[in-house]
Specification:
- By secondary structure, this protein is mainly beta.
- Helices cover about 5% and strands about 50% of the residues.
- It has 2 domains: about 5-350, TolB, C-terminal domain (Neuraminidase); about 355-480, Immunoglobulin-like, CATH 2.60.40.
- The chain is elongated.
Length: about 475
């Protein structure tokens, strides 16, 4: 994305940001955990993070469509955390040995990798490089390169590291006397985090092409401190920065973009934090409200949105922080749910979707109705269609056109017409035991041009010999105006 268009995305308010609504659910759908906090999320809602089981142990967990998976610890260890994962099933984080020494409790962290149900001490994968003590594995890219934070035992300082094919690399420092903490990495090989300057202040950093750069200095942060928490595939870095040059002040959410440093602003309190960013430039985090409570926030299209305002009335949730946002717009974070700290998943809803036309009862005794799954953002590419009830095992398909109509067709009504845009049909589907036809659209590959701002009209056609007459029927129609 060009710098000018990216800056416009960050600074120019749009109706998309103001209209967005979400469906919310517990990540731990089946109630295996008593408390939990997510770290990262991928398309479709898979996530990793920290969970507390009924015995009180803090353990690494992974969530997916099958539920909550509590990950194994290294032998003899008592707790851990899952901090990152990739699309190939690799999860990274920490496994910790808790040792009681008299009145003291000491925690010895080991960077851990989970693969195929097995846990591996990342130190065992190192075949060359500096003698760092690997404490936390923070992220792993699609090529299997692991990044994290360790400790230089000779200097007694935290150090960032990168492990590729057994070769360990020390990321370097901003100041010889300062530590380095890694927060995130992308598939382009960029790594971000926080490094101490020579005076002990935190500075956001970006490591790339073998060199650690001080984003605080190069970005022109006016104040004394900054931190980087996440980077997307385009190299957009988000975190916090002091924007007041007068001395130590509260930090505000910040983004380092090709067009420059952006102050993401506040709701009405004194602090805000940007924790995650996706490929579209959506940024999530937290902020203080006027009464100094924490609230989860989303920056989209230049608008700062309190995510609690997007929940249904009388929701049992108070969303405290949004930690990560996937490229399909799904958001994870933690909030108060019925008095407990729980992990949430927000799934965007289609706001422009509207039914029209009529459908008639079929051989099931009910009329098939069409609906959308996901949302209508072309960039997010997470949109699907559902129609039912239809007869079990019925063959059907979805089609769409540029205009509405309402004319008899088969046992029902055809609600969609070509208009000037044409008429297109999607591949045939078979309804399962629930009597629902479903179809996910690849918005970049669909036969009709589905572009931001375009309005299309969808309908389902299906065979129904038991219904008599023409032996086929149709659902009602669905109007969708697609968004950027």
């Amino acid at each position: 994305m060009r710098a000018a268009s990216l800056l416009a995305t960050l600074l120019c308010a749009t109706d998309v940001a103001l209209a967005q609504k979400f469906e919310i659910r517990l990540l731990d759908t089946y109630g295996q955990l008593t408390l939990d906090a997510p770290r990262r999320v991928a398309r479709g809602g898979a996530a990793v993070g920290l969970g507390v089981i009924p015995s009180g142990d803090n353990l690494p967990v992974a969530w997916d469509a099958n539920g909550t998976n509590v990950l194994a610890l290294l032998p003899g260890h008592e707790m851990g955390d899952a901090l990152g994962f990739n699309g190939s099933g690799l999860v990274v984080g920490s496994s910790s040995d808790v040792v009681v020494v008299g009145p003291l409790i000491k925690v010895y962290d080991h960077a851990a990798l989970w693969q195929g149900g097995q846990v591996i001490d990342v130190r065992s994968l190192v075949h060359g490089g500096p003698p760092l003590e690997l404490k936390w594995a923070v992220d792993v890219d699609t090529a299997g390169v692991i990044v994290g934070t360790g400790r230089d035992t000779s200097a007694q300082r935290l150090r960032g590291w990168r492990l590729e094919n057994g070769l360990l690399t020390d990321l370097g420092v901003v100041a010889a006397t300062g530590g380095v903490t890694v927060a995130d990495a992308n598939d382009a090989g960029q790594i971000v985090g926080t490094a101490e300057d020579g005076s002990g202040w935190d500075h956001a950093f970006l490591w790339q092409n073998g060199s650690l750069g001080d984003l605080h200095v190069s970005g022109g942060v006016p104040g004394l401190a900054s931190q980087a928490f996440a980077v997307n595939e385009s190299g957009i870095v988000v975190g916090t920065a002091e924007f007041d040059p007068g001395g130590p002040v509260y930090e505000r959410a910040a983004a380092w973009t090709p067009a420059g440093l952006v102050d993401l602003g506040l709701i009405a309190g004194e602090q805000s934090w940007a924790f995650g960013v996706n490929a579209q430039g959506d940024i999530v985090g937290g902020a203080l409200t006027p009464n100094l409570s924490n609230t989860a926030v989303l920056w989209r299209g230049g608008s700062l949105i309190d995510l609690n305002t997007k929940l249904p009335p009388n929701s049992p949730w108070w969303l405290m922080a949004a930690r990560a946002v996937a490229d399909d717009g799904r958001i994870v974070g933690e909030g108060s749910y019925q008095g407990s700290l729980r992990a949430f998943l927000l799934e965007p809803l289609c706001e422009s979707c509207a039914r029209f036309c009529l459908s008639r009862p079929n051989s099931t005794g009910q009329a098939a109705r069409i609906s959308a799954s996901g949302w209508e953002s072309v960039a997010a590419n997470d949109f699907g269609l559902l129609a039912g009830p239809v007869p079990h095992g019925a063959v059907g398909l979805f089609f769409y056109g540029g205009a509405k109509t309402q004319v008899p067709f088969g046992n029902g009504l055809r609600c969609v017409a070509p208009g000037s845009a044409g008429l297109f049909r999607l591949p045939a589907q078979t309804a399962g035991a629930t009597g629902v036809l479903s179809q996910r659209l690849d918005l970049g590959q669909s036969p009709g041009v589905i572009a931001p701002g375009a309005t299309w009209h969808f309908q389902a056609w299906y065979r129904d010999p038991a219904g008599g007459g023409a032996g086929f029927d149709l659902s009602d129609g669905l109007l969708v105006q697609f968004l950027p």
